[in-house]
Automatic annotation (TrEMBL):
Coiled coil: none
UniProt xrefs under InterPro entries: Ergot_Alk_Oxidoreductase (IPR051604), NAD(P)-bd_dom (IPR016040), NAD(P)-bd_dom_sf (IPR036291)
SUPFAM superfamilies (UniProt xref): NAD(P)-binding Rossmann-fold domains
Limits of the NAD(P)-binding domain: 6-179
Pfam families in the record: NAD_binding_10
Protein's UniProt name: NAD(P)H-binding protein
């Protein structure tokens, strides 16, 4: 039995989609109605990390688990790992972040991920760590302004980031969940090239067949816009991470996707072409 958490999010949804037919699958999810067609592929347990009873139900009989947490500063990892150890789970594949291995990264989000990794190392459960660089899908936050104004507004416009297609991260996760030999391994996952927001804007414009304009956000303006979606402490962490990108800390490329899956990592242009409809229509 394999348990998938985060199955309604960008990455977890892809993991569930890519797991081979015929496996015994279970999903822990707050709102089962958001699973869509994937609901027919797995046994569903409604609940979350803060509900010990739902955790116990989800983990009963599970041998391998995909762990994805996103409540920065929270104790969801600790709750999950305690329950997993009690349930006899043998192997946890956890999503962390590439920033963890950067000695210069000390923002709140990175510190939280480092703490969670240490919890996993000390859990007594066999583990695999996935450390992806930023997801290409983060550019979907530009969709509304692209569709309505033909404008992208972001920080660090000319600073490169070796962002990765979430589908490639999901493919790596599936390998770790279904094959032996990944225990005790740390897989840093990037795209095939570093690319800046200005370059992403240009590629999206070519695919859409219309010119797009890039506007560099000041830290003050970015703080306001990010504050509409995130707590203040998370906003400051994101701004600090942006400064690291400006200094070149996120430009390094790995061949991990190729080594794990046998297929090169997808470039941004491929991801964008596959998701172009999201940038073409003005949201109502």
């Amino acid at each position: 039995m394999i348990l998938v958490t985060g199955a309604t999010g960008t990455l977890g949804r892809e993991v569930l989609k890519k797991l081979p037919a015929g496996l015994s699958l279970r999903v822990l999810v707050r709102d089962p109605s958001r699973l869509g067609e994937a609901a027919h592929k797995a046994e569903i347990v409604a609940g979350d990390y803060g509900d010990p009873r739902s955790l116990d139900r989800a983990l009963r009989g599970v041998s391998r688990a995909f762990l994805l947490t996103c409540r920065v500063g929270g104790d969801d990892d600790a709750r999950f790992l305690r329950a997993a150890r009690s349930a006899g789970v043998r192997h946890v594949v956890k999503v962390s972040a590439a920033a963890v291995e950067d000695e210069g990264a000390h923002d709140l989000i990175t510190r939280w991920q480092r703490t969670n990794e240490q919890l996993l190392f000390g859990s007594g459960i066999r583990w695999t760590l996935l450390r992806p660089r930023a997801f290409m899908s983060n550019t979907l936050s530009w969709a509304a302004s692209i569709a309505s104004e033909g404008v992208v507004r972001a920080l660090c416009g000319t600073s490169p980031n070796a962002c990765v297609d979430p589908r490639d991260v999901a493919a790596a996760a599936v390998r770790a969940l279904t094959e032996d030999g990944h225990e005790g391994q740390i897989h840093t996952l990037t795209g095939p090239e570093p690319i800046s927001a200005v370059e992403q804007t240009a590629r999206l414009g070519r695919l859409l067949g219309r010119p797009l304009r890039f506007e560099e956000l000041s830290p003050q303006r970015a703080r306001v816009l990010l504050g509409a979606r995130h707590p203040a402490a998370v906003v400051e962490a994101l701004l600090t991470a942006a400064e690291r990108q400006r200094a070149g800390a996120k430009a390094g490329v790995t061949d991990t996707v190729l080594r794990l899956t046998g297929r090169p990592a997808r470039p941004f242009g491929t991801w964008a072409e596959d998701h172009l409809a999201a940038f073409a229509a003005v949201p109502r």
